[in-house]
Design goal:
The protein is an alpha+beta fold. Helices cover 38% and strands 35% of the residues. Strands 1, 5, 6, 7, 8 and 9 form a 6-stranded antiparallel beta sheet that branches. The chain has a 5-stranded antiparallel beta sheet with strand order 4-3-2-10-11. β3 and β4 form a beta hairpin.
Amino acid sequence: MSNELATIVLAACGGLLVIIGLLFFLRPRWLLGWLKGMAVFGLMLLGAYVLIIAVNLAGYQSLEGMQTVATISTQRQDDQLWRVTLEPRNDAAPFVETLSGDQWQVDARIIRFSGPLRWIGIAPGYRLERLGGRYTSLEQERSQPRSVVSLGEVTWPDLWALDQEFNMPFIEGVYGNATFMPMRDGALFDVRLSASGLVAVPVNQQARQAVQEWDQ
């Protein structure tokens, strides 16, 4: 389409829209009814969105500053087979799982708020997502089955997933994961979380020695 033809088409469309808009003013009741309908529809959409946020917040823990959200201990059961215990700090029941590999990692979902939700003081929320194992050998990592355990149930509608796909207003869904840490018999780690992500900190001598040997 040439520029001249495009100008004519756009001008015609624009003029038609203006005329249609002016017709509303010929009968003000139509305009007032339409405005009321749009206002009610907008309020319903806003209310539904607030309800979705409330339902999802019920499944998240409040996050203010850097805090310890769980402890993880590892006990050797066999060669590259470990009993891993994750104890959340929110009085929830511990997760005891068997993982294969040489290292562990825990992931979390984080929701941060902006705009009016931040102004009224809603703190970021987190939910521990999964616990997984990994082999240090690339060949084993590719050939052996992965050990991944879910740590929570997904709430529907899933606000975090919706933000990842549609960039929802006033919220930001962030995926946080702790760096892979080495498995060691009797090792104990703290999992600490801030609004930007997870950090794993060795607590006892076995954990510190495992990290030192792993870094060498």
